[in-house]
Amino acid sequence: MRAVRAAPGPDAVGKVLTHDVGGVHKGTVLKPEHLRALAGAAELHLVELEPGDLHEDEAARRLAAAIAGAGVETREPVQSQVRLTAARRGLFRADAAAIDAMNAVGPLSVFTLVDGQAVESGEEIAGAKVTPVAVPARLVEAAEEVAHAHAPVVEVLAFRPLKTVVVATEKLKPKARELFRGAVTKKLGWYGAEQLGVHEVARSEAAVRAAYDDAARAGAELILFAGASSIDPLDPAYQELQAAGGEVMQLGAPMHPGSMLWLGRLGAAPVLGVASCAGFGRSTSLDLVLPFVFAYGSADPQHLRRLGPGGLIESGAGRRFPPYS
Question: Is 144 helix (H, G, I), strand (E, B) or coil?
């Protein structure tokens, strides 16, 4: 790659423009038809590609292709950038270590949304570009090696249509009941859940145990529990979960609001609880964990514990919530 100063004449043809001139954008490989638009420039700053060099558009295409995993689509370059989009609604995952390593190779840039976001189909989730108008191919090859060693670097995991049962141990007034059921239906519907029912039960050992047993018999793959006290170890939600053969795996989430979230397991089904039915009607930690549950279909305490960075959501420094519609 060789830097060249030239007048806007035949000697400029075939070389890459490094700055915008007369409506011709930087990165353009000049052709004879560009010369008229460039005629007013006293001097052009150009790059002549040499063997082993890659134009910025080709380099960006290759970087994007290297990082794109399942559920990801790449677009054509626009001003040297290739954007990647979600091919489906799902959970966006990004390998931060791989991205850091790729960005350390040279004047290459790979950038993404924050890992762990719920995204819509068609949403931009990442980008790839190089800073100069051309780079040595060996730099892109080195970045590709990093990406292949960590593949997939970025992906969108599809949500699973989990069979879901909702249990509430709060006595709700008609208006509150309507709001609760509406919020539950909207959120679960966005994930494509198969909703097996919303059950209001007494806050007693017998009623809660029966609710767990009924959910298991119905083949529930997810149980959402509203109304349990996360600071009372004798709450029937926990006592009867263990009596039914399940376990409590995590009490509390490192964020606010929503820190009273808890996680358990009944068989293979996650049991996810909030302290109040009102927790379904606003954005809390529940909404940041549900994408992981519906993507993986399992109960993993790490999905709660990872919420600490960005957990001060009431201060405006938090994570992005799913775009429910």
Answer: helix
What's the full length of the chain, in residues?
Answer: 325
% helix, strand, coil for the chain, step of 5: 35, 30, 40
Rounded CA separation 105/140 (Å): 8
pLDDT tens digits for 281-291? 888 889 999 99
pTM listed for this prediction: 0.91
**Read out DSSP for 98-120?**
HHHHHHTSSSEEEEEPPTT-EE-
Provide the pLDDT for residue 317.
64
Give 298's DSSP letter: S
Q: Distance (Å, rounded) from C-alpha 279 to C-alpha 272? A: 12
Q: How far is CA 61 from CA 82, 94, 306, 322, in A?
A: 6, 18, 32, 29
Provide the 10 A C-beta neighbour count for residue 269.
25
Q: Which residues pair with 110 in a beta bridge?
A: 128
319: DSSP letter: P
Sort residue 22 into left (φ over 0), alpha (ψ -120 to 50) or beta.
left
Residue listed under structure tokens 């994007």: 64
How far apart (Å, rounded) are the C-alpha atoms in residues 91 and 69? 13
pLDDT at 267: 96
Regions in the chain scoring below 70 on pLDDT = 316-318
Using the CB atoms, write b or e for 45-81: b if 16+ within 10 Å.
bbbebeeebbbbbbbbbbbbebbbbebbbbeebeebb
Partners of residue 222 on adjacent β-strands: 164
DSSP-based three-state secondary structure for 218: coil
SS3 state at 180: helix
